[in-house]
Write a structure and sequence with these properties.
The complex is a heterodimer of chains A (659) and B (202).
Chain A: H1 2-30, H2 33-62, H3 69-74, H4 81-87, H5 92-112, H6 119-143, H7 168-197, H8 202-233, H9 244-269, H10 273-296, H11 309-333, H12 348-378, H13 388-408, H14 420-443, H15 450-474, H16 480-486, H17 489-514, E1 516-522, E2 527-530, E3 533-544, E4 548-559, E5 562-567, E6 570-574, H18 576-579, E7 581-584, E8 586-588, E9 593-602, E10 608-616, H19 618-636, H20 639-658
Antiparallel strand pairs in A: 1-10, 2-3, 3-4, 4-5, 4-6, 6-7, 8-9, 9-10
Chain B: H1 2-6, H2 9-29, E1 51-53, E2 61-63, E3 72-77, H3 82-97, E4 102-107, H4 111-121, E5 127-131, H5 135-140, E6 147-151, E7 157-162, H6 167-194
Parallel strand pairs in B: 3-4, 4-5
Antiparallel strand pairs in B: 1-2, 3-6, 6-7
The chains are: A alpha+beta (659), B alpha/beta (202).
Chain lengths: 659, 202
């Protein structure tokens, strides 16, 4: 009976979603404040019922209720509890419920933290979010019901979760990613609300900004986690494959990066309104497009869910409805009159415009590369594949161009930069960063590597210009600490996020250029030197896990004669899933380098194929991702957003906010 | 007016993309398009892992590891496939005269018929994977037999060829790649030697 409760809760949530999308707008139309204010309670109600459905599904997994199809095909009694938990979203049906839950949570968050907003705006925004929710609830209930049963022939044992997904990283990766994806629905809803009400102004940009920043921060975390997971779980040391599903999450990220910056211009200067609203629509559209690509079977990837044409048609129709109608609204309502505000060629507006153009170009590059095989096949021009060479060739130069301008942006002024003194300082920073970049490779690696030099040039240019600007901002302060405390959180957010970007550049480029890897046959007692480390293979031993058994190698790593780590890479064979074999890499990590060991294949007589990697600076990439996300959150926590709330809300609501 | 017109551009682009998806989904439905068969799917990626019975000895299990360590080709074949009959003698020639390491994937076949085939026609394969349900074939993205994959010394897929092998195809596609892969393997072994104070001891 319990699965049916979950099913019923999902149906009730659908009913509430329908009300949430209709009633508030009707209130706006009739100018009835009561109906408008109902939007908040309806959002709460919807959240409660979706949460019940999700809790029920989780309970079914934890209880091994194999009468439920999803549980039977993605879990197993031997599966550790923590993975039963993540198995809830390790499949198409359950992940959809997670998606809906997160959407409901975002709606609830908007309902709670929207006191400064005019009521009709809240009503419009929540109504748009309700409509999106209807689409996904219908999708779940009609094509992918998670509570479908296997009656009366209930299997005694489930077929287990894909071993690739039995990993701590995968417990948090999908929720983070979805919080980011779905979070763009808030920016989208604000954009649609602004377009339909005709109030596309600086206030709209200020409301959207913190929401967009938070969503984008979570998406950054999700992508970084995914890359980290691929690195240690797939067992061959790769961290980004330009796989269609990775691209599906990367495109909204790129577009979101554009949006985050474009919103800044619209908020501060009131320009680029049509452009910003378009980016908001695009960011969420690309999230939906990603969902479509992963679940329809149009593209193939290691990550994609079981494809089903029926589902594909449903999402495509939904996609056409949401994106098509919002773009139609945009075409009719976006302002065509150019803003009166003028800015010169050498202004912050201009630099942010360049940022936007680069991010748009990067998004289109990735989109084009992802869809190219489809386009060629549709035109009967043959089968093609697009791999890393294309993406790297186009993407890297784009990012390099952007980094150059990115260095100018913090010190540039709105409208027109007063340049004289600054020019000199920037020239010094440029010279210094070129110097740093060009000299570093001499200290590193045997051969001079020009790509590493360039990467370090760009990264140090970013870092130096950031500090230059900070110093200039502190120039008139009485003391450094007084000056630092006067800088706003959004400024710190910017600095941290840009620093993060510099870190990511260093990580990505240096690990690509300076990695050393070897595949070797090793017998017990064999010793190998690699990049200054000596690896000694002490043989392998049998291991027994809860739902797998396998072999574990023992490898001592010495540096300069001292033992620095003993690594235990594993080869696991999972009992269910037709004995799928998994490689568990063992990593000795550090800020400056990772030492990465994976077991290949047994080669007989206790010999094993062993894969040894030396990966310098690889952590910087993910550390950079963390900094970008943190900066993004910090900027969203800027005082001015709350200040605006207090000014409007007056005495009564300040009490409420204190609670 | 022209300004307003421009604003319809994103909508138009989206309509084209949505149309593309619609067309492609129909093609998938009708079996004309299968994203799994894109040549990219596995190129430069490791051969998919599997555990399956060996055709020659059905109680013995073959795993991915058994195919690794040498430059080799993996040939997907079946007794029901006419082109495989044509191709077979050439495979025998490759194995005996040119010492090419060939692994077989016996794809969606009957084990009796397949074993009889090998007895009668000769067995060019070092071993055969018995993929009765076509599961490995699915992972490989096999559209039909025969199909041949080339693996490098690391066990990464480097080439995929659909259709029967013959001397012309071999000279055009496989031979140049083999030479390249041998150089890569040499370079790899060299690097093992040349690394500062390197050397495999023991």
């Amino acid at each position: 009976m319990i699965p049916e409760y979950g099913h019923f809760a999902l149906i009730l949530a659908l009913c509430l979603a329908i009300l949430q999308s209709v009633v508030p707008v009707w209130g706006v139309y009739k100018n009835d404040r009561y109906f408008m204010s109902l939007s908040r309670s309806l959002a709460l109600g919807q959240f409660v019922f979706v949460a019940i459905a999700f809790a029920v599904l989780t309970y079914l997994f934890l209880q091994d209720d194999f009468s439920v199809k999803v549980v039977a095909s993605h879990s197993n009694t031997l599966l550790p509890n923590i993975y039963k938990f993540s198995a809830v979203w390790g499949n198409h049906e359950g992940s959809l419920v997670l998606w809906i839950l997160i959407l409901a949570a975002w709606s609830l968050a908007v309902a709670i933290y929207s006191r400064e907003l005019p009521l009709d705006m809240v009503a419009r925004v929540l109504s748009v979010m309700g409509m999106i929710s209807i689409g996904f609830l219908l999708f779940s209930l009609l094509t992918s019901n998670p509570f479908e049963r296997h009656l009366p022939n209930t299997p005694l044992e489930g077929s287990d979760l894909n071993p690739l997904l039995q990993d701590p990283g995968l417990i948090v990766h999908p929720p983070m990613l979805y919080i980011g994806y779905v979070g763009f629905s808030v920016a989208f809803a604000f954009a649609v609300a602004a377009l339909s009400s005709g109030r596309l102004d600086a206030a709209w940009a200020r409301w959207s900004r913190p929401w967009t920043n938070v969503a984008w921060g979570f998406l950054t975390l999700g992508i970084a986690l995914g890359s980290w997971w691929a690195y240690y779980e797939l067992g061959w040391g790769g961290w980004w494959f330009w796989d269609p599903v990775e691209n599906a999450s990367f495109m909204p990220w790129l577009m979101g990066a554009g949006l985050v910056h474009s919103l800044a211009v619209t908020e501060k200067r009131g320009v680029f309104k049509s452009w910003t609203v378009l980016l908001a629509i695009f960011s969420f559209s690309l999230s939906l497009l990603g969902t479509f690509m992963v679940r329809s079977g149009v593209l193939t990837s290691v990550h994609s869910f079981a494809a089903d044409p029926e589902r594909g048609v449903f999402i495509l129709a939904f996609l056409a409805l949401v994106i098509g109608s919002s773009l139609t609204l945009y075409a009719f309502r976006a302002p065509t009159v150019a803003s009166r505000s003028h800015y010169s060629l050498w202004s912050r507006e201009m630099l942010l415009l360049i940022n936007n153009i680069v991010f748009l170009a990067a998004t289109l590059t990735v989109l084009f590369g992802t869809l190219f095989p489809l386009i060629m096949d549709a035109l009967n021009l043959g089968k093609y594949s697009v791999g890393p060479p294309y993406f790297n060739a186009v993407f890297v130069p784009l990012m390099a161009i952007m980094t150059v301008f990115m260095g100018f942006a913090p010190s540039a002024n709105w409208k027109k930069t007063r340049a004289d003194k600054l020019k000199m300082q920037l020239a010094v920073a440029a010279g210094a960063s070129v110097l740093v970049g060009l000299t570093l490779p001499f200290f590193y690696g045997a051969e001079y590597n020009i790509w590493a030099a360039l990467a370090v040039c760009f990264a140090s240019w970013l870092i130096m210009t950031l500090f230059l600007d900070m110093r200039n901002k502190l120039r008139n302060a009485q003391s450094i600490s007084a000056g630092l405390s006067r800088l706003s959180r959004s400024y710190y957010g910017m600095v941290i996020a840009h620093l993060g970007f510099a870190f990511t550049i260093i990580g990505v480029c240096l690990v690509s250029q300076y990695s050393v890897e070897r595949d070797l046959r090793m017998e017990p007692g064999d010793k190998v030197e690699l990049a200054g480390y000596s690896f000694q293979f002490d043989g392998s031993r049998a291991i027994q896990g809860p739902n797998y058994s396998g072999q574990e190698g023992v490898i001592q790593v010495h540096q300069a004669g001292e033992l620095i780590a003993v690594l235990y890479p594993q080869k696991r064979r999972y009992h269910a899933q037709q004995g799928q074999v998994m490689t568990e890499a063992a990593i000795d990590n550090g800020l400056m380098r990772d030492v990465y060991v994976a077991m290949g294949e047994p080669l007989g007589e206790e010999a094993w194929a062993i894969r040894l990697h030396y990966k310098p600076f690889v952590r910087w990439m993910w550390l950079g991702g963390l900094l970008i996300a943190f900066g993004s959150f910090l900027a969203a926590a800027d005082k001015r957003y709350r200040l605006a709330a207090k000014e409007k809300a007056g005495v009564k609501d300040t009490v409420a906010e204190a609670v | 007016m022209v300004q307003r017109f421009k604003l319809f551009l994103p909508l138009a682009i989206f309509a084209i993309v949505a149309g593309l998806f619609y067309v492609m989904m129909n093609r998938i439905d009708e079996g004309e398009y299968n994203p799994q068969t894109l040549p990219s799917a596995l190129i430069n990626k490791p051969f998919p892992s599997f555990a399956m019975p060996q055709l020659e000895q059905l109680d013995k299990t073959v795993i991915q590891a058994d195919l690794l360590g040498e430059i080799s080709i993996v040939n997907v074949w079946a007794t029901w496939c006419p082109s495989c009959h044509v191709e077979h003698s050439y495979l025998n020639y490759l194995a005996s005269e040119r010492n090419v390491v060939i692994y077989g994937v016996n794809y969606k076949d009957e084990s009796d018929a397949a074993q009889k085939w090998l007895q009668e026609k000769g067995n060019p394969y070092r071993l055969n994977i018995f993929d009765k349900d076509g599961k490995l074939g699915l992972d490989l993205g096999v559209t039909g037999a025969p199909e041949t994959y080339m693996l490098d010394h690391r066990g990464f897929v480097r080439l995929r060829y659909q259709g029967p092998l013959n001397e012309a195809v071999w000279q055009e596609k496989f031979q140049p790649l083999i030479e390249q892969l041998q150089q890569e393997q040499q370079a790899f072994l060299q690097s093992a030697v040349n690394w500062p104070q390197a050397g495999v001891q023991g």
